[in-house]
Amino acid sequence: MNIGRRKNAKRDKYLYYYDFGGRGKGQRPSMGLFIYVKPKNAAEKQHNLETKAILDITKSQAILDHQQLEHGIFLNISLRRIFWITMQTMSYC
Q1: In degrees to the nearest 10, what's the CA dihedral of 68, 56, 3, 42?
Q2: How many domains does the chain have?
Q3: 72-93 confidence digits (pLDDT tens)
Q4: Per residue in 34-46, pLDDT tens?
Q5: What pLDDT shows up at residue 58?
Q6: pLDDT of residue 93
Q7: Average pLDDT, whole number, for the chain?
Q8: Among candidates 8, 3, 33, which has minimal Cα distance to 20?
Q9: Which strands, in side-by-side order, build the sheet including 2-7?
């Protein structure tokens, strides 16, 4: 599984999707995340930074999930819990 991106119709945002390797219907479901191609203000720049952090965590989680299935290695704590704890602490800053 890869994470792909494409520009929207207005070509002002990159939309991210899961790429499962196929081109048929349902093979590239949307992640619901986007970044601005050329951020115009500080809020859009901050949005891009936060979205990129979420994408990095999502990619890491996908790699770990793949390794767990392939090699039978299971962690005691779910990284999804770590992600939500991290996101909650970031919102308080």
Answers
A1: 160
A2: 1
A3: 665 655 666 666 666 665 654 4
A4: 999 999 999 999 9
A5: 87
A6: 46
A7: 81
A8: 3
A9: 2-7, 13-19, 30-36
How far is it, in rounded angstroms, from Cα 15 to Cα 31? 8
Q: What is the DSSP string of 16-67?
A: EEEE-S--STTSS-EEEEEEESS--SHHHHHHHHHHHHHHHHHHHHHHHHHH
Nearest to 53 by CA among 5, 90, 8, 2: 90
Domain limits at 80?
2-92
Cα separation, 13 vs 16, in Å, equals 10
At residue 61, what are phi and psi to the nearest 5 degrees?
-65, -40
Q: Is 78 helix (H, G, I), strand (E, B) or coil?
A: coil
The model's pTM: 0.67
Amino acid 73: pLDDT: 62
